[in-house]
Each structure stands twice: as structure tokens, then as C-alpha cells.
Inverse folding.
């Protein structure tokens, strides 16, 4: 699904301007990083894509959905198309890996037989088949994030959003998670990752959108602009 921000300004109730005049588009199947210092507006931008926050001015369009006119029912439909993962995984600790991934499928009323098949397949694709009956707290951080990614992918979303998905992980595990996200993107899902980890982001040679104080810095369309071993094309 195409994502478009048109002259989006957003301030929270307290008055903090979180995003200021953001115009950008993310193509279907694109991989993009959102970087910038703490408080720059990265999480806010992601929340606007799954319409958990709305512009104060301007418009966000995701596929056929428009922030200016979307209904509650339509938001529920949109969220089937947008998977989300977070820094702190947000798994239910009293449920096994398998049971965590079942949740979104059951929520949309899938038949039990098809649920089992899909959960096994998506856990396999994140490399966690062997540990599918473990409880989250018995798994490493990287494994917990894989379950969270599997859960986000269960409904085959068009877009996967990840907010600091490697913030709680060591550098080696972080790299494996980035590789998994790249893999998912190769399968056709758009992926948008908010991260402080500019080094990893640039190493992957993907588009980097930089925010500072809620504004886009640069034109936000270059892939790995200042990577040392990237040829300069401009
Ligand atoms: N729920 C909220 N209520 C009020 N202000 C908020 C809220 N969430 C964020 N903000 C403010 O909006 C601005 C942007 O916050 P946001 O969380 O989007 O930044 P961020 O780039 O994700 O930061 P970080 O790297 O620390 O996660 C900040 O000034 C922040 O204090
Ligand atoms: Mg954030």
C-alpha cells in the first residue's frame, strides 16, 4: 500500500509540536528507516501510519484510507494491513510463542485449522519453530522480538512498522533482526523502521528519512546518503 503524508502537522494535546509540515511518500514494497534524535517525532510518524494518532493539519493516506475521513470500522480494517512491532516486544508472558502468534488470527475469526497452519509457517519463517511452545520469558531478547515479528506478520500485512525493534538487543542480535526485516521486505511487504541505529541503517543501503524537531532533514529520499563506500550519484 502506498503511504502518503501531505503537509502533516501534528501537536499533542499539551501543545508539543511532534511533526511539522511533513510531506513524504512510501512506495508499495519499499524499505525505509526513520532516524533522528530522541523526541524528533519518529514514533509519532509511525503511529500516524496505523492511525493511532491523527494530523492537526494536513492528511495521511494509507492505501485507500484517509486520515481526514476514516471511520472506526475502517481503522480496524487498516490495522489488518499494517503489522507493528516495538522495542519492548509487548508479548503476553502467560502465553507461549505459538499462542501469542495465534491472537491476531483468532481476533479476525480465522478457522482453527487454518490458524495452526499459518502460525507454524510464520514461526518457521522467523526461525523459531523449535521454540514455539516456550514462554517468552524463557527466550532471549532476539527470540522474543522474532515472535513479535511473527505475530505482526500473521495476517500477511502489506506494511510492517517497527519502532526501535533493536533497542533492547546487543549489536549482533540487532543485525540479525535487521536481516530478518530485509528478508520480509524481499517477500513484498513494505517495511518502515524507526531507529537510533544510524550505522546499521546506513550499512543496509536503504532509504533513510531523517527527522529533527518534527521536520524532515534533507529531502528524505536518499538511500544511505553518507555511507563511506557508497558511490556519490548527485
Ligand atoms: N503521548 C504524548 N503526549 C504528549 N507529547 C508526546 C506524546 N508522545 C510524544 N510526545 C512528544 O512529541 C515529540 C515527538 O515524540 P516521539 O515519541 O514521536 O519522538 P521519537 O523520535 O520517537 O523519540 P525517541 O527516539 O525517544 O523514541 C516529543 O517532543 C515528545 O515529547
Ligand atoms: Mg520513539
Amino acid at each position: 500500500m502506498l503511504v502518503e503524508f501531505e503537509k502533516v502537522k501534528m501537536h499533542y494535546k499539551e501543545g508539543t509540536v511532534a511533526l511539522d509540515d511533513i510531506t513524504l511518500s512510501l512506495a508499495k514494497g519499499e524499505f525505509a528507516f526513520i532516524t533522528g534524535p530522541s523526541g524528533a517525532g519518529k514514533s509519532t510518524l509511525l503511529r500516524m501510519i496505523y492511525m493511532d494518532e491523527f494530523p492537526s493539519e494536513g492528511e495521511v493516506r494509507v492505501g485507500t484510507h484517509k486520515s481526514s475521513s476514516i471511520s472506526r470500522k475502517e481503522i480496524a480494517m487498516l490495522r489488518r494491513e499494517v503489522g507493528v512491532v516495538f522495542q519492548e516486544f509487548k508479548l503476553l508472558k502467560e502465553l507461549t510463542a505459538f499462542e501469542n502468534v495465534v491472537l491476531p488470527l483468532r481476533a479476525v475469526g480465522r478457522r482453527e485449522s487454518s490458524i495452526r497452519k499459518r502460525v507454524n509457517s510464520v514461526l518457521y519463517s522467523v526461525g523459531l519453530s523449535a521454540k514455539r511452545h516456550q514462554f517468552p520469558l524463557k527466550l532471549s531478547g532476539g527470540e522474543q522480538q522474532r515472535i513479535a515479528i511473527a505475530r505482526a506478520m500473521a495476517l500477511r500485512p502489506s506494511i510492517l512498522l517497527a519502532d526501535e525493534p533493536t533497542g533492547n538487543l546487543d549489536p549482533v542480535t540487532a543485525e540479525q533482526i535487521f536481516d530478518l526485516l530485509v528478508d520480509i521486505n524481499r517477500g513484498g511487504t513494505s517495511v518502515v523502521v524507526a531507529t537510533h541505529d544510524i550505522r546499521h541503517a546506513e550499512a543496509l543501503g536503504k532509504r533513510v528519512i531523517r527527522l529533527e524537531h518534527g521536520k524532515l532533514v534533507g529531502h528524505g529520499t536518499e538511500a544511505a546518503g553518507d555511507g563511506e563506500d557508497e558511490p556519490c550519484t548527485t
Remarks:
- The two ends are 29 Å apart (CA to CA).
- The longest strand covers residues 17-26.
- The beta strands are 3-11, 17-26, 31-35, 57-62, 65-66, 82-86, 159-163, 190-194, 207-212, 215-217.
